[in-house]
Amino acid sequence: MKTSPRLAVLGSGKGSNFVALQQAIITGKLDATIVLVVSDLTGAGILTRAQGFGVPTATLPPSPFRTKLSPEGETGLVNLLRGHAVDWVILAGYMRVIKDPLLDAFPNRIINIHPSLLPAFKGLHAWQQALTAGVAETGCTVHFVNREIDGGKIIAQQRVPVLPGDTPESLHARIQTAEHELYPAALAKVLAQAS
Question: So which residues are the catalytic ones?
Fold first, then answer.
């Protein structure tokens, strides 16, 4: 009997994309099991939300670097994921750059969602970048993770208009709504193709 792919979700924030994925699993729209939620921040909301669903959680030890894990921390994360027999690593607002130990351990099996229409507006605060640039539309992108920040192969995108009078907060909220629709659907497609 075929078993569902085992996912680990890595996040640094409130965990709204984790919730969207978990709800898609519960309703049968996504054939997968989230076996672990990991955060680099002890107080991250994603940990509380995961516990609310009964999903095991782990917190990474503090890193001396702000934007990445130490080599020891990254190796520890790989060991943690392997210990939970994880098939795929799903990034949901994870604010650390993914490095070689993790990339090597899960080749073409790390997926991220980014709040812009890549390749436009890579990096932090993409919705603010879009507003500053004065574009008519932005959106979100689900993509594979590689060594280039927000540079992996694009899986799916959803467009979001920039409205007159938008603030960074209002635009970001609309992008997040689109993310919650796009991420489960795109992930379901990738997992189905990989099985």
Answer: 114
Pairwise CA distance, residues 34 & 45, whole Å: 17
Helix (H) or strand (E) holding 194: helix 168-194
Helix (H/G/I), strand (E/B), else coil: 155:
strand
Residue 34 CB partners (closer than 8 Å, separation 6+):
7, 8, 9, 18, 21, 22, 25, 50, 53, 55, 90
Q: Alpha carbon 11 to chain centroid distance?
A: 7
Alpha-helical segments (H) within 27-167: 45-52, 71-83, 100-105, 126-133
pLDDT one-digit tens code per residue, 131-177: 999 999 999 999 999 999 999 999 999 999 999 999 999 999 999 99
Q: Distances in Å between the alpha carbon of 135 and those of 114, 130, 139?
A: 17, 6, 11
What is the reported pTM?
0.96
Q: How far apart are CA 22 and CA 10, in angstroms?
A: 13
- Residue 94 burial (CB < 10 Å; 0-12/13-18/19+)? buried
Give the pLDDT confidence score for residue 1 in this predicted structure: 60
The answer to whether the beta carbons of residues 136 and 107 sit under 8 Å apart is no
Asked if 42 and 59 touch (Cβ cutoff 8 Å), the reply is yes
Strand 110-114, strand 88-91: pairing: parallel
Residue with tokens 């812009």: 116
